Amino acid sequence: MAKASAVNRNKKRIKLNKKFIEKRKKLKKITMNKKISLDERFQAQLKLSKLPRNSSRTRIKNRCEITGRAHGVYRKLKVSRIALRELTLSGKIPGMVKSSW
Fold first, then answer.
1. Where are the alpha helices (DSSP H) in the chain?
2. Is the pTM of this model over 0.85?
């Protein structure tokens, strides 16, 4: 089990990202547009830097929904490899069985 503080911190980042995603996209679009004057682009960049760091998408860590583990997480299932194995062995995931040969 991961530290509760790490899991909570990541949840806070997800919430902040959802809050500022539209504003961030708009400012990013302005800064990347070469047709707009340099001064306007610079002002947009300054506004972008004033936003909270944790509102950036790249700050969010993929974590297991069950254990909070950060490594070995399957993106589609949002579950770590260890939790996936336990769920499979207990028969909680339909169609998935332990491999043997």
1. 4-32, 38-50, 81-89
2. no
